[in-house]
Write a structure and sequence with these properties.
By secondary structure, the chain is α/β, with parallel strands linked by helices. The chain has 2 domains: 154 residues, Quinone Oxidoreductase, Chain A, domain 1; 154 residues, 3-Layer(aba) Sandwich (Rossmann fold), CATH 3.40.50. The strands form 3 sheets. Strands 3, 4, 5, 6, 7, 14 and 15 form a 7-stranded mixed sheet that branches. Strands 10-9-8-11-12-13 form a 6-stranded parallel sheet, sandwiched between helices. A two-stranded antiparallel sheet has the order 1-2. Strand 8, helix 3 and strand 9 form a beta-alpha-beta unit. Helix 2 packs across helix 3 and helix 5 crosses helix 6. Pfam families: ADH_N_2 (PF16884), ADH_zinc_N (PF00107). InterPro entries: ADH-like_C (IPR013149), ADH_N_2 (IPR041694), ER (IPR020843), GroES-like_sf (IPR011032), NAD(P)-bd_dom_sf (IPR036291), Zn-ADH-like_protein (IPR051397). This is NADP-dependent oxidoreductase.
Amino acid sequence: MAAVLPSATREILLADIPDGLPGPEHFAIMQKPVPVPGPGQVVVRNQYFLVFPGLRTLIGGHADGVPLPRIHAGDALFGPAVGEVVAVGPGGPLRLGDSVVHMLGWREHALVPAAECTPLVNALPDPVAHLSSGSAAYGALTRLAEVRPGDTVFVTGAAGAVGTLAGPVARLLGATRVIGSTRSPDKAERLRAELGYDAVVVPGSAPIDEQLAAAAPDGIDVLLDTVGGEQLAAAVRAARRGARFALVGALAGQLSPHRDGGSAPAEIDTFRLVNQSISLHGYSGADHPEVREEWTERFGEWLRSGEITFPQVRIPGMDRAPRALQELFEGRHFGTVVVELPPG
């Protein structure tokens, strides 16, 4: 069963393995026939797909331990997407017109097992909000760092997809003071003016330790870290006794042109970890499968009440997707970055 479909569709392939960070020249947009669904399969016309830094690791070839497959030359890219079911194979619970989330973005039409599609619920007022990275921030702040009333929270990479939600969520969970970091002075101002960050550290403008000391003279209670590297090391030095650190990313290594995307070494003071009773945990959504549903419900409530916003950038058209990925690596955007495909 199918709606009227075009005869051809397009997808974005990795044309060549880059030496360093990938650029638009490493990708190709290829045309192919629209797939026909078999038993238990559906064809989804994608409406939005996520541009996310994890592609760097999958393309770099060092994805050991990552719960996603490596992307080889000639493979189509993939990632979270929102779309409409436009063809249905025999069997399965989905119907024409259903809106779903799935993992085969970076193409106009996706052939997906129905079991790997998640129907959209009415909890979120905007379908693009289903592509937010807020579940990781919320899970880390509630399951690992356990933000408490009165806490001072430091969020690294605060202008990214995780950070733009992590700070406001920390505040809603009871944090008294929320500090962020970004390398852009313009983004620092937006974090303060639009998202309520109390202070922002701008690495490169002055020593991080000095900036953290000024922003949190009594130290930090919680770290939500998306960067690693020197910012993680500085946070250890600024931590109060009993501080809880939750690591959700390692962009300092992942987006370094001198590394392979699969490692992010950091030199931290382990004596201070012990002496200050600092806990440090890495967050994986797979370890907390209940978080996504809980996050979706609370996110929807907060969006509707106006207690939180969802900063995002929508890039129009498939042709601009490779450039959008490069711009993400370069730190040009604020919040979540999605590609929006035209209807049809």
